[in-house]
Amino acid sequence: xxxxxxxxxxxxxxxxxxxxxxxxxxxxxxxxxxxxxxxxxxxxxxxxxxxxxxxxxxxxxxxxxxxxxxxxxxxxxxxxxxxxxxxxxxxxxxxxxxxxxxxxxxxxxxxxxxxxxxxxxxxxxxxxxxxxxxxxxxxxxxxxxxxxxxxxxxxxxxxxxxxxxxxxxxxxxxxxxxxxxxxxxxxxxxxxxxxxxxxxxxxxxxxxxxxxxxxxxxxxxxxxxxxxxxxxxxxxxxxxxxxxxxxxxxxxxxxxxxxxxxxxxxxxxxxxxxxxxxxxxxxxxxxxxxxxxxxxxxxxxxxxxxxxxxxxxxxxxxxxxxxxxxxxxxxxxxxxxxxxxxxxxxxxxxxxxxxxxxxxxxxxxxxxxxxxxxxxxxxxxxxxxxxxxxxxxxxxxxxxxxxxxxxxxxxxxxxxxxxxxxxxxxxxxxxxxxxxxxxxxxxxxxxxxxxxxxxxxxxxxxxxxxxxxxxxxxxxxxxxxxxxxxxxxxxxxxxxxxxxxxxxxxxxxxxxxxxxxxxxxxxxxxxxxxxxxxxxxxxxxxxxxxxxxxxxxxxxxxxxxxxxxxxxxxxxxxxxxxxxxxxxxxxxxxxxxxxxxxxxxxxxxxxxxxxxxxxxxxxxxxxxxxxxxxxxxxxxxxxxxxxxxxxxxxxxxxxxxxxxxxxxxxxxxxxxxxxxxxxxxxxxxxxxxxxxxxxxx
Amino acid sequence: xxxxxxxxxxxxxxxxxxxxxxxxxxxxxxxxxxxxxxxxxxxxxxxxxxxxxxxxxxxxxxxxxxxxxxxxxxxxxxxxxxxxxxxxxxxxxxxxxxxxxxxxxxxxxxxxxxxxxxxxxxxxxxxxxxxxxxxxxxxxxxxxxxxxxxxxxxxxxxxxxxxxxxxxxxxxxxxxxxxxxxxxxxxxxxxxxxxxxxxxxxxxxxxxxxxxxxxxxxxxxxxxxxxxxxxxxxxxxxxxxxxxxxxxxxxxxxxxxxxxxxxxxxxxxxxxxxxxxxxxxxxxxxxxxxxxxxxxxxxxxxxxxxxxxxxxxxxxxxxxxxxxxxxxxxxxxxxxxxxxxxxxxxxxxxxxxxxxxxxxxxxxxx
Lengths: 697, 366
Description:
The complex is a heterodimer of chains A (697) and B (366).
Chain A: E1 2-4, H1 5-11, H2 19-27, E2 32-38, E3 46-51, H3 62-73, E4 95-97, E5 103-112, H4 121-130, H5 137-149, E6 153-157, E7 165-169, E8 175-177, E9 183-185, E10 191-194, E11 199-202, E12 206-207, E13 220-227, H6 229-239, H7 244-249, H8 257-270, E14 275-284, H9 286-293, E15 298-301, H10 302-309, H11 320-329, E16 333-338, E17 341-345, H12 356-367, H13 389-401, E18 405-406, E19 412-413, H14 415-421, E20 441-442, H15 447-458, E21 465-476, E22 481-492, E23 494-495, H16 498-501, E24 503-504, H17 507-518, E25 526-529, E26 542-552, E27 555-563, H18 565-570, E28 577-583, H19 584-587, E29 606-615, H20 620-628, E30 635-644, E31 656-665, H21 674-690, E32 694-695
Parallel strand pairs in A: 4-7, 18-21
Antiparallel strand pairs in A: 1-3, 2-3, 5-13, 5-14, 6-13, 7-10, 8-9, 10-11, 11-12, 15-17, 16-17, 19-20, 21-22, 22-28, 23-24, 25-26, 26-27, 27-28, 29-31, 29-32, 30-31
Helix pairs in contact in A: 1-3, 3-11, 5-8, 10-12, 11-12
Chain B: H1 14-32, H2 38-49, H3 55-64, H4 69-99, H5 122-135, E1 140-141, E2 147-149, H6 150-153, E3 186-188, H7 194-202, E4 207-216, E5 228-238, H8 243-258, E6 264-268, E7 274-283, E8 300-309, H9 311-318, E9 330-337, H10 338-346, H11 359-362
Parallel strand pairs in B: 1-4
Antiparallel strand pairs in B: 2-3, 4-5, 5-9, 6-7, 7-8, 8-9
Helix pairs in contact in B: 1-4, 2-4, 3-4, 5-10
């Protein structure tokens, strides 16, 4: 809301502070002045751009801000001048409230013989300074009073009203053309201000087209009423109208304001001619009055207030004098009930105040938050990490060290991706109001996001990408959504920069990564397996020829490999992409491995290499287990050192490959003898030959 | 055999021997200084160790063979150490001769092969830093679900149904919730505050907790808004916790985060679940408070929201944990946007970059 300092000062002429000081003082008390601009003559002073929190509807006007300034500076704010010229005789306009739950008060005043035309003088000047559009004087008067003291009012063309004013619920299918020119069909929950024929306006939201003020208007009915916040809010949302009036009513207007607002609007209209007919008609629903304007006093304890707020930087702190001074300045009436105890009667314009804590906040606010000291509470407990934090940290460190950048992707994915990447069909959960069509589902996997990020880079000619993301995946149904932690990684392009020794990422880079990651955990057994394409057991996003599953202690930990060519084509990826996903909830069931040191042998290790030709059907796993089953304690290490296939089938027959198996023997307590080595070599050769291997010459 | 290849020996006393060998050593070291290339090394070897004309041979012939018996030992010792020095010099240069090949010299101006460590995500870096800072003053860590019920996200935090305060947090809702009672409807949590309630329901006071996490709002994306973002929530509940404790705690944390010269200031705000509520500004970390473009010339940057836990929040919790009696305990809560802090700290101008996975952006944080 925009506030003119000159308008503000007109209510509080004794403020000594400069405009800038005033802005600072207001800001630190919750009337946030976010911009200050000079205003030229004749208005002068400054324009404040303010941001007022939704609970402080009472301060969304100049008089309300002046009330705050009065509290800050300890000044007295004079009441508004509501004197009106004497009324000519008349009965006043009949008003009936038929929806007392929605309308607690309705005032109507008749002005006759008015002159409708453009606004002049201070209204026109202040509107110009505020950047507010001028319409016609009677309409401007209503807006002017809204900006001035905050209560919405409405001016009807009296001659277009047929009979009494009724405040009632809309009838089924009832129609109303509102001031914005929109023809609306009303809901039976809507509350309208109507005459005896038809609806004239949406109560507290917007007036109607048919009774609006025109240059030809001669006679006016001024409405100033109090409508229920929840009712106005429902109407405002239902019809998509956010008006100045609805904004204020739905946050709780001042029940005592209607007669004041009515008088102020009437003053302005009459300043251009015309007279009042009859007395103000003021219909009040007593139950609503009791509920909102005659609320029971709140018990307030100064010591409790001081205890909750703590130490102040200077002075004696929150004393009786400080606390009661603030509350009185804000319009509360205090009655002492004991030592430092008061019954506080609340001002009708502060519907946000309901409890003692609300008063404590007022005291702190007006005292100034920055007047309180900075203290640290003492503490003697333990600090707990999340149970899985060390495991997550171990994985993260390793991934970072391996050159994978940490990334965060969208929590949502498309229905297609959800179907492709969910671990089981039909477990993905849809959104009711998705951000976009591509974000219609809660992600059941981190991979759609990973692929989107890889594609983002490839589409920008960033070809060498390694990323990982740890995050939540979602499965379930509208009834219940389960969340699990996952880890996804993706790699494409070259490892290292191109100059010295670059090579492309391949399956074994991912496998090595998974081995290293799972190697941080204790396990009895780890194996990797592949599935033939026709088995249907491998996730469909993986290329079955270059993908594997990792199983730890019988539980599937994750899948990884090259993205399926179909999926790659669908995403228009122009180079092979390797991705994988690890189910952290499963991996985290294993404990983190605690490193333990072993004695290093003082004796020379001896290396023996064996070159054999194997049929393609024989996998390393068989070779490895054959060597393990020899149970030679001195066989410290065995690994495939070289693999060779001859496409021409000459050096190695077709359907076969040659493998150099490198072994290392070492004893912790003696030098190995030739006979030992000879005998072990023989058993190794025998074992490998029994697998179908042929020793190469 | 030229006599001038070795100095003249003035006598066989120690002083004379020392003088003569010192001259030889000087010559030797000078010659050793230019041992580059195989030819030079061979030349050096011949000059000193040559069997016919080497200087040692000359010394041996001229001095050793004619020395009186008493001088043989001191002369021999000096001779041997000179010989050893020559051999060492030759060994050193021979070692060099085999290993260094001038022809294969590398271009040291080519760029090196750099290690390519992955980069921490700036948000998570901020997240972990915040957790560390609060751990140092006794705060444990908790997390909670990203899909929440209306009850935990709104109602128990004192956002009544149909309350205008709900408008400020446009919510993404899970499909198929219409038939459920409002409180059970599932939505994407709009803040990390529900974890306050969940934690208090689980454990009695005292509580000191930070809650980092991902949150979602149905906001249009622009340079400073993302429908996905991260918050760090804090909660401290104990007997006698005061508003000045809240101030002191956040002042400490901001100084730990941004440096000890940073100042904080608090001013009134509104959150349904705290009262009194405050917004916290820090003095601009770019200009030190003098005013610059980053702080819109105010000298201050708004960074977080906080307040004393509203008694009605304790009221909701008391249904399950009676110890949260607002007559006996009090507490404060605070919440900060990790994205915003990361953006400010690392100079990120577009929040969308944080969720793009763009390597060109991420690798800057390695």
